[in-house]
């Protein structure tokens, strides 16, 4: 059976082709709705999965997670480490991501808190790697910079946000962001430390930020496949994350 016809050197669907195209479109819509219903049904019998960027998960969320569990016993999501792009079709129900990449337009995003960054090092190395000048402290030219392959532009972004010149000091590269922060704790150099990832180490006296912190223009967001109901677990999680992030 012919589904197309040619008119003036162009190809068009004929009546039969149009009928089939409408049927296929309607069928795909029915399939999408069935998948959503099956997914929602599965969510009712298993814990939701919350994917979170690994360093934020290890250094900020997990140390505070018992507070959320205490007020939402039996309802808390299962935590999963993951960063960057993802799909809600792969078993993830919610995700915490920094908005430094593009996600699909149909993802629903709730801003949690702004990213604030600063240069951090061990307290006993401040005198070695920072120097007094007319404007206060500044980074010495020979201070070792702890770079990371997962955020290679971290120092440049800090310099742009602060308006400071970035010295061309020796660079020590690490595979993951978490390793660069641990290297700073070990006294190996100066790292770019986001506030939420280093605040516990600063409170414990393991790290200091001699030049303070500044917002770099990015944010952490909670992503969901659809808008959240006001009384839902997702909405309560957003509220708790915002309060914890501002503390």
UniProtKB/TrEMBL annotation:
Q: Which GO terms describe its biological process?
A: DNA-templated transcription
Q: Which GO terms describe its molecular function?
A: DNA-binding transcription factor activity; sequence-specific DNA binding
Signal peptide location: none
Keyword Transport listed? The answer is no
Alphabetized, the UniProt keywords read: DNA-binding
Q: Which domain of life is it from?
A: Bacteria
List, for all copies, the residue spans of the domain called LysR substrate-binding.
50-242
Extract the InterPro entries matched here.
LysR-type_TF_proteobact-type (IPR058163), LysR_subst-bd (IPR005119)
Q: Which family does the entry's similarity section mention?
A: Belongs to the LysR transcriptional regulatory family.
In its UniProt entry, what is this protein called?
DNA-binding transcriptional LysR family regulator
Q: What species is this protein from?
A: Phytopseudomonas flavescens
């Amino acid at each position: 059976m012919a589904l197309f016809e040619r008119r003036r050197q162009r190809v068009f669907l004929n009546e039969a082709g149009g009928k089939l195209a409408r049927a296929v479109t309607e069928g795909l819509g029915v399939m999408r709705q069935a998948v959503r219903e099956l997914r929602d049904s599965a969510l009712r019998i298993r814990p939701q999965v919350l994917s979170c960027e690994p360093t934020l998960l290890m250094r900020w969320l997990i140390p505070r997670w018992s507070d959320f569990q205490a007020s939402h016993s039996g309802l808390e999501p299962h935590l999963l480490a993951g960063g960057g792009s993802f799909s809600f079709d792969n078993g993830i129900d919610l995700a915490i991501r920094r908005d430094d990449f593009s996600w699909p337009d149909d993802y629903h995003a709730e801003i949690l808190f702004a990213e604030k960054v600063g240069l951090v090092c061990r307290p006993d190395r401040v005198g070695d790697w920072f120097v007094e000048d007319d404007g206060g402290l500044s980074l010495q030219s020979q201070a070792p910079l702890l770079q990371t392959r997962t955020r290679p532009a971290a120092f440049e972004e800090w310099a742009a946000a602060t308006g400071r010149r970035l010295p061309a000091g020796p660079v020590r590269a690490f595979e993951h962001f978490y390793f660069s922060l641990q290297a700073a704790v070990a006294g190996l150099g100066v790292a770019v430390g986001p506030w939420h990832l280093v605040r516990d180490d600063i409170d414990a006296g393991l790290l200091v930020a001699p030049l303070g912190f500044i917002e770099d223009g990015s944010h952490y967001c909670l992503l969901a496949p659809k808008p959240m109901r006001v009384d839902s677990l997702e909405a309560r999680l957003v509220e708790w994350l915002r309060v914890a992030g501002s503390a």
